């Protein structure tokens, strides 16, 4: 690594060791035509992505002692295109689950959606307005396990109904896990019978969790609260507080990188940087 003062978001040696084999294998499979090995270390490229994820800065505002925007954008786009971001994320998820004494794949998932405002410059063709929550922008759909780890993510216009998001989430859960492993999905009342019926075609029993009518305000629901916790954890990554990405696929990639940061810290016992003054 080049000599510079570290940022709080930088990968430690132990955290880098968890993802380095995937990056190295990808790099070996994509050699330069000229045979050049590249000017920038792959670890520094990832450090730049995690810095931006955590701080929410613009591409042009990356610090000068990190690789330049052109290099970081190139690798970020290439890894998103080739699914390397998801590969790294999924491998880490397997390790976190196994460390917790669970099987690599879950038997139960929790579905939920979150609408976020889109930043200026995000194409209007990929955004909409959530009529229920009165939020203009995009909608994120997550399927998490009981540890709050992301199994599937969908990003679409906020105007897309939760039912449509739920169906795509179930399709992606089925594609991301072995047949028959996920047996149950818990969802809130925003999802309707069409999602339940779609889950049945995938061998997943979708259960709509009814809210207790006696409850007032925000009352965490058993098991379902973990997906809310995941949304809260993701909000610590300021790049996810709004949707700044031109392409929904890039928004999904941002979720993978944020959770990669979370999981590498869990696996190595590294605390996350705090927003509080010390």
Automatic annotation (TrEMBL):
Source species, domain of life: Bacteria
Pfam family, one: DDE_Tnp_1
PANTHER family tied to this protein: PHP DOMAIN PROTEIN, TRANSPOSASE
Residue ranges of every copy of the Insertion element IS402-like domain listed in the record: 11-89
UniProt-recorded name of the protein: IS5 family transposase
Domain Transposase IS4-like residue range list: 105-232
Organism: Nonomuraea salmonea
Signal peptide feature range: none
């Amino acid at each position: 690594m080049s000599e510079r003062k570290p940022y709080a978001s930088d990968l430690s040696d132990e955290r880098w060791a968890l993802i380095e084999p995937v990056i190295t294998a990808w790099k070996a499979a994509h050699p330069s035509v000229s045979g050049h090995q590249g000017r920038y270390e792959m670890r520094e490229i990832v450090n730049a992505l995690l810095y931006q994820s955590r701080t929410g800065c613009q591409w042009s505002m990356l610090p000068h002692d990190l690789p330049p925007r052109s290099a970081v954008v190139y690798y970020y786009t290439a890894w998103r295109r080739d699914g390397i971001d998801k590969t790294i994320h999924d491998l880490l998820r397997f390790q976190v689950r196994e460390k917790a004494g669970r099987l690599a794949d879950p038997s139960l998932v929790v579905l939920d959606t979150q609408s976020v405002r889109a930043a200026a410059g995000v194409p209007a063709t990929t955004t909409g307005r959530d009529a229920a929550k009165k939020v203009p922008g995009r909608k994120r759909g997550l399927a998490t396990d009981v540890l709050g780890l992301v199994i599937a993510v969908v990003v679409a216009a906020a105007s897309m109904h939760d039912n449509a998001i739920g169906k795509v989430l179930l399709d992606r859960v089925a594609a991301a896990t072995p047949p028959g492993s996920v047996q149950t999905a818990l969802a809130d009342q925003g999802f309707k019978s069409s999602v339940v019926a779609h889950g049945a075609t995938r061998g997943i029993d979708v259960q709509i969790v009814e809210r207790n009518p006696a409850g007032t305000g925000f009352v965490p629901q058993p098991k379902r609260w973990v997906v809310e916790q995941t949304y809260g954890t993701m909000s610590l990554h300021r790049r996810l507080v709004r949707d700044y990405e031109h392409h929904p696929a890039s928004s999904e990639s941002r979720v993978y990188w944020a959770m990669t940061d979370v999981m590498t810290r869990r696996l190595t016992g590294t605390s996350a940087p705090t927003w509080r003054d010390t």
